[in-house]
Design brief:
Its cofactor is [2Fe-2S] cluster. Helices cover 50% and strands 14% of the residues. It is an alpha+beta fold. The protein starts with 11 loop residues before the first helix and ends with a helix.
Length: 355
């Protein structure tokens, strides 16, 4: 978290991440162009560059869209999520190079304005084999452009998280336009089915990942809590909540993160104010609940971000009866102070821990 909006600061991890992306892109493009030059000497450099940037952009797009569900399935992928915006801007840059050279090669050599030519050179929208697929790629690029220029947190706060998140969900529309751009374009002119199979495999993998991650979330949301008493719901045993971590419960459509800190239990709303990250999948670091997505922090006892930040989330009543943990799913106003529910550790367990 930062006090003000400054130029992006690259720490060691970000530098390694970005250098890896840069090196991979350079290696991919140079290898693709070299193989093309060797296997087909008649190809021009411009054509090889157009094809290499196209395949690289599609590959990066699939990786970007896979990161979200992968982190829901396995937390080991979280480091990829921290810097996903960098990967997104890189993908847009590669796609922009592809689009620029395509317009230059196919629409800039005549007397008509290249952008006018893009939409008027082919108007056979009622044909599958001759559909003007380049227009689909153009509109996808516009969406990627809007996402790239609004990737900084300044725009997140200026537009509001809801509007910002809605805008960035258009990546799925852009992905559909890209797939149609490929299927109605280059795939129809290829005699080798490899590209067609790769695109279908990529789409199938993405759909499968999202379905698996979504199924897990639905299963968690539909968990039934039968024991209820005076508005409280029995959710688990105190030993089920690991130190400085949380368990997530969905009760009456409320997603609640139950954290254990210094042998006390605290409950806050599970959704981070930044980008809707799952707070319950984070940890308590330096006394603060830390969102696993981008490091936003909240105090466990009141759901408030430490000063000078002003983000707040709802808190909930928690009580411990013996070893049983009970939650009241009725949310308290954001930032409401609540004492932690003390965990009573049996004497025999203390002796065992000492031993």
């Amino acid at each position: 978290m930062g006090v003000s909006y400054l130029a992006v600061g690259w720490n060691r991890q970000k530098k390694i991440y970005d250098w890896f992306i840069f090196a991979f892109c350079v290696l991919y493009l140079s290898t693709f162009i070299a193989i093309t030059a060797i296997s087909n000497p008649d190809y021009t450099f411009e054509t090889a560059l157009i094809r290499s940037t196209a395949t690289l952009a599609i590959l990066l797009l699939h990786v970007i869209l896979s990161i979200g569900p992968l982190t829901r399935i396995n937390k080991k992928f979280l480091p990829l999520l921290y810097n996903r915006r960098h990967l997104g801007v890189t993908m847009f840059t590669i796609a922009l190079i592809h689009g620029s050279f395509s317009i230059l090669q196919f629409h800039a050599l005549g007397n008509v304005n290249p952008f006018v030519s893009l939409f008027t050179a082919n108007t056979q929208y009622n044909s599958v084999s001759k559909f003007p697929f380049q227009a689909l790629g153009f509109f996808a690029l516009v969406i990627f452009f809007l996402m790239a220029i609004t990737s900084h947190d300044f725009w997140l706060h200026t537009l509001s998280p809801k509007i910002w998140k809605t805008l960035h969900l258009f990546v799925y529309l852009a992905y559909f336009l890209v797939i149609m751009h490929v299927m109605l374009g280059v795939v129809q002119y290829e005699t080798n089915p490899v590209l067609f199979v790769m695109v279908l495999a990529g789409a199938a993998a993405l759909i499968t990942l999202h379905l698996v991650a979504g199924t897990r979330e639905v299963r968690k949301d539909n968990q039934l809590f039968k024991l209820k008493s005076e508005g409280f719901v029995y959710v688990c045993e105190s030993r089920d909540v690991p130190d400085n971590c949380a368990k997530i419960f969905c009760i009456d459509k409320e997603r609640i993160a139950l954290f254990r800190f210094e042998d006390k239990l605290y409950a806050i709303h599970n959704v981070c104010k930044h980008q809707g990250g799952p707070l319950g999948e984070g940890q308590i670091i330096d006394g603060c609940i830390t969102c696993p997505w981008h490091g936003y922090q909240y105090l466990p006892q009141n759901g408030q971000s430490p000063l000078p930040f002003k983000e707040k989330v709802n808190t909930y009543h928690v009580k411990v009866a013996g070893s049983q943990v009970w939650l009241n799913p009725q949310p308290l106003p954001e930032g409401t102070e609540r004492p932690g529910a003390a965990i009573i550790i049996p004497d025999n367990q203390i002796i065992e821990n000492v031993k």
